[in-house]
Amino acid sequence: MQRREFIRFVGISTVAAGTAPLLASGGARDNFMISDVREVSKKMIDEIFKSNAYYKKTKNRAFFEAFVGSQHPRVTLVGCSDSRFQMSAVDETPENDIFVVRNIGNQFASNPGSVEYGVNHLHTPLLIIMGHSRCGAVKAAMSDYSKESASIRRELDSLSISIRKAKDGYNENEKWLNGVISNVHQQVCSARAEFEHEVKDGKLTIVGMVYDLANDFKEGYGSIKIVNVNGETDMMKIKEMPVFRSAIS
Fold first, then answer.
1. Total-model pTM
2. Which end of the chain has fewer CB atoms within 10 angstroms, the N or the C?
C-alpha cells in the first residue's frame, strides 16, 4: 500500500469507528475499534514487506558485502524515538555510517551503555545529540505527567530536570522550542562529562543539533541547526571551529 493510501485508510477508519478511545494517549488510533487496529496492523506489515522488496532491488550483493562482517560507523547519534524524525533526514545512506541510539527526548542517561559502545568500541569520532522541534516528550515534561505509567514518569523526570533552565518564549511554540534546545544542551553536558578524556584528547566531538520539522527556526522545514559543540553555545565561536567552517553558513 502506498503511504498516501495508508494515511487515507487510517483517517477513514478513525472516523468510521465512532467509539470511545482505546488508548489513553493521542494519535490516529484513539477512536479505532479492535478490528480497525488489526486491519491497520495487517496493512502496515504488508507495506513493510513491499518496501523491503523494493529496498532489496535497489541494493546489490556488493553493497552488503562491504559491511556484512563488521560495522564501521563514523557517527554515534542519540535521537528521539519520534517517528517524524528518521535517519534519511541526515544521511541518504545511513547503513554502516550512523550508530543510532533512540529514546524519548533523546536522552543520554536512558542508554549510556549503547552510547559508550558507539564511542569507545566502534570509535566514532563524532557524537551527535539530535533533538527536534515540537518534541512530544519535551512537551510532556513541561506539563503534568503524573498520570503516566511509572516507566514513562521515570524518563520524563530526568527530561524535566534537563529543561528547567529553558528560556521563556513569546508564545507556546517558542517556549516549547526553548525547552528542546535546553534539553539538547543538558544532554551534551552529560555526554561531555562521561567522555571528558576523549573530548580533551581530540578523539571525540560532541555536537548538539535540532531537527526542525516545524520551521520554528524560520530556516526551512526539515532543516538541521547546530546549537552546541562540546559545551560551547556561542554560534560565532562555533563557526570558527575548523571542523565547522564549511558546514555552517
1. 0.83
2. C
